[in-house]
Design goal:
- This protein is mostly helical and 181 residues long.
- It folds into 2 domains: 66 residues, Hypothetical protein, domain 2 (Endonuclease III, domain 1), CATH 1.10.340; 79 residues, Helix-hairpin-Helix base-excision DNA repair enzymes (C-terminal) (Endonuclease Iii, domain 2, Orthogonal Bundle), CATH 1.10.1670.
- Helix content is 61%, strand content 0%.
- It contains 10 helices and no strands.
- The longest helix has 19 residues.
- It is elongated.
- The N and C termini lie far apart (50 Å).
- The model has no long low-confidence stretch (mean pLDDT 92).
Amino acid sequence: MSQRTRDENTEVACQRLFSIYSDPWTIAKLIPNQLYELIKPSGMYKQKAERIVKVSRIIVEQYQGKVPSDLEELLKLPGVGRKTANIVLYHGFGKPALAVDTHVHRISNRIGFVKTKQPEETETELSKLIPSELWGLLNGSMVEFGKNLCRPHAPLCNRCPFTNECKFFRQRNKEDVNQIS
C-alpha cells in the first residue's frame, strides 16, 4: 500500500485494514471493493485493493498463509519489488536487507557514496560499503534525511552535517563561486 503514498497515509490505511481483516485467509475470500473505503487514504485504492486480495490468495494457496521469508519468493508476488521485499525481510523477519528507494538512491549518489543510475545498482554498491548489520536502519534514516534536509528540490545544505563529505555540496559551491567571479 505504500507505493506512491506518504507514510502517514499508508499508516492510516494499514491500521484501518488490519483492524478489520488481520490475516490473509480472510482477505483472500474478499472481493476488492470490500477494501476500498478502508484503504482509500493510501491513494490508488482500487488497484491496491485488487493487488492485496490477489497477493493474499497467493500467500494462502502457495505459502500456507505465511509470508515468504526469502527474497526470491517475495519477488514472485505481484507488485513486490526489491525495496518492498527488503523491507519485509528486515522488519518482518529481522534479516539483514538493504531497501533502496528514491531517497536512498538520490542521497547515496548526491553525497558520493556511489555513482549509479538505478536503485538496484545502488543496493549492490552500498552493500559493499556498509556492514550488513546497518542495512536495515539505512532506509528509514535516509528517508527522514531526504524528507527533511537532502530534499529532491531545494536541499537544505546550509543545515546539513555532511557538507564536508558531500560531492553535491562541493560541486554546488564551486558553481556558485564561479558565477560570482
